[in-house]
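ugh ok fine here u go
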Amino acid sequence: MEQLAAHFEGMDRISVDLESDSFYSYHEKVCLLQVSSATDDFVIDPLSVLDLSPLGAIFRDPKVEKIFHAGEYDILCLKRDYGFEVNNVFDTMIAARILGSKELGLASLIQKYFDVTLSKKLQRSDWGKRPLTAAQIEYARLDTHYLSELRDILHGELTKRDLDGDADDEFARLVRVQPTERVFDPDSFWRLPGARAISAQQRAVLKELYYYREKTAAQMDRAAFRVLPEQLLVRLAEVLPRDLDGLQKTRGMTPYLFNRFGKELLDIIEAGLAKAPIEKEPERPANRRWDTVTMHRYEALRQWRKKKAEDRGVDTVVILATDDLREIAQAPLRNPHDAESWLSTLSERKRELYGEELLALLSTPVSAPVGGGRKRRRRRRSGGGNGTAAPPADA
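structure:
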């Protein structure tokens, strides 16, 4: 690893990708780290090479550009698993999106610009298994092999269309992402398909089954859906088998699941039947950041962003990211007497381009929905009893 870090010294860019086992393991981890220089491709096995710290300085160095494709998850993993600080990034997927490309996947972009077909057959590989096959290593290598050339092509198009500043804003946002701790919520069983259609007592059983699956998945270090399928959990709560014969006949109960979990499942069902019925979903704390006026202000901002994007002939994300839109909509509620702070989350460039318009919009009293009576999509409520909901994630 020290020799590899020395190889990168003096270079102005590297291309980076990683593979994890989140599709297979409960405690997800980085299983491969691919790094390409201008002359070589490297595939690193973090399950064998436990100390990747020699690479920390490269990721931290603002003079070395790190090229990713859809790099948010990769950067989160590098920060979470290795404590790396990541500076100066270029993301080819973000660049393609800002350019309005219909092709956003890496394989599609490689096909478009290099006329090379990358196989997707190994996309769902269990990267935590060893030994890796030659085909897996080649698949991983190619994920970074073309990134540097692709970056140059996309950067040229961004510059030609005067969109490089917009891309830089998004790359800077990517650098700031931070990993969050995974917290299990036993009441999230309500999200299982069919949880609201069963009886209150059956829901008590379902909650116990749901918790048992999570605990077992953590112990086995397997993704929860690979321990017991969601449909089977709900079906067991519906059928409520009381003996091994009834359990074995439950639709979806495979021989493996029956032999591995059968007796424990019957015990869990009995425990759930002894619990108090669950009549209704617990109310979430009131989301005071989304009162009615703030929701209307958010809608006004969305309409402004849409019009601005049409005027510039770009995607709405080029104007302002949805996260920024939410923060700006909430700013007058958080700091009603400090207008100077309302745009503090925006880059200096965004404030120069849109600051006056946004402040004027935020200062305008909002008393009714905007958007010409646009039919709202139904949203999952996030407030308590205030009758408001946060905007959907894809708004």
